Structure formats: structure tokens, C-alpha cells
Amino acid sequence: MKAEKAEAAGVAIQPPRGTYDIVPGETRKWQALEALLCPVVSAAGYKEIRTPVFEHTELFKRGVGETTDIVNKEMYTFADKSERSLTLRPEGTAGVVRAYLSHGLSRQSPPVKLWYMGPMFRYERTQTGRQRQFHQIGIEAFGSEGPAIDAEVIVVAVDCMAAVGVKNFQVHLNSIGCRQCRPRFREILKEAIASKRQYLCQDCQDRFERNPLRMLDCKSPACQEHYQGAPASLDNLCPDCLSHWQGLLSLLAELGVAVVINERLVRGLDYYGRTVFELIADDTRLGVQSTICAGGRYDYLVETLGGPPTPAVGWAAGLERISLLMEPAQAETPLTFVVCPSAPAALKLACAVRRAGFSCELDFPPQGGSPRGFARQLQQANKTGAAWSLIQGEDELQGGEVTVKSMKDGSQARIPVEKLIAFLQENCRNGV
User: Fold this and answer.
1) How far is CA 123 from CA 276, 291, 336, in A?
2) Model's pTM, two decimal places?
3) Rg (CA), the chain
4) What range does the domain containing 410 cover?
5) Are residues 315 and 351 located together in one domain of the fold?
6) Is the same domain home to 248 and 173?
7) Which helix (H) or strand (E) holds 280?
8) Dihedral through CA 141, CA 146, CA 148, CA 151, nearest 10?
9) How confident is the model over 351-369, as pLDDT tens digits?
């Protein structure tokens, strides 16, 4: 309604709250981020998968969990024209699992290792590095239940941060047990907290019955005070979970990955079990949101969504938060700029240079018409930051030549047009 009123009044329409435009300059930084991250996950054997940005709502209710804040409060759900309930994806794992089953990837030799990147959507309060439309990169590994694959995905996350240049972060690690030992721990936790229930926030009071482990994930400082001294899942693991936990710690120690054992780390999604971890950065640029990557093991999710029992582990990292920790990207500038009194000749030369793999721009007068004078075109070339001006005056056009001028030192050379590409190849190779 506000947008309609703004349009009727001739007022510029603003983007919806919690969304933003990635404009030229910023896109350069995002391209650099993606170019740094993708080779790291690919080198570890993960193959890219691209899933739809919306799925049937039931996928997230079953997969993420109906007791989670995401399903209860944060999903963008709508009915399409056939009255089917659809939801913009709030996270990536459920959709990847659905695709893993839809396309028979479960029949491939394990582990099946996949990575994804793209936008996610959650209706929540906007903060630094947290928007309602946000972007994640994530990896998922299906088919191996030992601690070695857990160690690999954690190392890949650490290597991704190193590739981007993020330094001040810690790996927080915990185990929340499995179907055998977690029910007993739930009761132990409820018994320990029961006398304090009336002092907890409404969310924690609701979670007390439905999902008591998630009480430990509450962001309220008042609630966290009441959880001091609460039982820890690490003290209540079954023999198999304890062996898995000890094996993971041993592997990470051998790989030189320092960890912080965080007994309050449980993660906010129902599908996690055993290993859970977060990469937490110590950097004021992130504001109050310090987690830059989070994940863990989800051995029951494939089965929950209709597949065979399948061990799985993965993580997702927020690209907005990581980008806040990157150095500004250098401005994107063309290598060459055509200066010519003839618009057709200028465009023809620019196209030839571009098709040879070099960036090239040319002058387009604001009011159209004939190209501007040489002085104005050279001034424009200088503004773009071009390394070379490719000058074709009347003499050069008649002689089939081009004057190549260095915008750095002013030196220039007049050469046949057919030798221009070789000239650029040689000089670019030499860094001139």
C-alpha cells in the first residue's frame, strides 16, 4: 500500500525493508568474494548444486522443524494461484536434501559432496550483516558417519575464511548427542531448569516442553544467567557419541585446528545431532552478530524427508557478514578506451578489442549525436582509469592505423590496426 501511494504521488519507491541493492563497486567486492570461496570448496571435492529459491512449505516444516523460530516466525510463505503453499527458502540444507532425493543422488557412491550459493529469506529484525534477504555459501556431505568427514567440513570452513583474509575467529564446537542419548539428556535438562521456568522468557517457556535443548540457544542475557551451571550434553553422551566426539577432537588437533568447547552451543534448527559448530569472529564491524559460519551433523534429515537413513554433515556461511570483514575491492577500470571522431569506426574497433578478451570503452555523448572532440574524449578516458587510449583520427582511419597512448606516462606509438591485439597482448603480459 505504501509503495502504491508513493508511485501515485510520484515519489521514488524504496526497496523493501531488510533488502538492499548490490550496486557497481559493491558487486566487484562480491565477485572477489565468490572467486575466493568457490575454488576452496571445489578443491575439496564438493560439486555445485543450484536449487529453487522457493519450495513447498511442508519441506521446511518437516525438515527445519515446526518448533523452530524460523518456521514459527520468520518464513515468507504464500499461496500460489493454485492455492499451493510455497515458501521462500529460509536456509539451504533442506532444499539440497530434497534435490539429493529427487535426482537419485543417494544412489551414488558415498560420500556425495555438494556446495551451493545464493539468496535466503527470513522475516527478522535487520541488523549489521543480517538482512531479510541474505546470501549464503554452504557445503553438504552425505553418506559418511565417522568423525573424519566432520573434521573435513570444519577444515574447509576454516580454509574458506583464510582465503578471504578473515583472521580473528574461533571454532566453537559441541556435541548434542543422538536419538539414543539425547532424550535422556532432555529430561535431565528439564529437571534442572524446572524451578527457574517462571523466570524465563516466553520463547524459553514454550521450548521447555517442545524442544528444551533450544533454550540454551536463547539470546536473552537474563535467560542465560539462569542456565549457568545447567547440565551439559557432553557429560551425557552415549558410548557411540562419546567415541565420535573424541575422534573428532583428535583429528582436529592433528590438523592444527584449535577449538573452543562450547557446552551451550546447540544451533537453532531441529535437524542437527552430534557435532555442532560455529565460526565466531572477534570484529566490531559485525556489530552484535559475530557468527560467520555455522553447521554440524544431521544424520536424520534425509530419512525425515522420505529417504533412506543417511548420515550427513555440512555448514553455511553468511556472505554479507564475511564481506564486512574483507578489504574494499579495487575499482574496476577498463584496459582501453577508444578515442575517435567516427562513432561507427569507434564501435567497430571497441568490439574487435573486446572479442580478443580485453576490456574496452568508448565515448557516448549524453545528448547523442556526433562524438565529442578529442580533448573531451581523452578527458573521459582519464576519468574511467583506462590504461591505454586507442586513438583513431582522420589520418589513422585513412591509413588503417591506430595510435596507442599510455595514460600512465603519455608515451604513444602508431601501429597498423591488425597489430593492435598483439601489442596489447605483449604489453599486458609484461604488466605495462
Assistant:
1) 24, 19, 45
2) 0.88
3) 28
4) 336-429
5) no
6) yes
7) strand 275-281
8) 70
9) 999 999 999 999 998 878 7
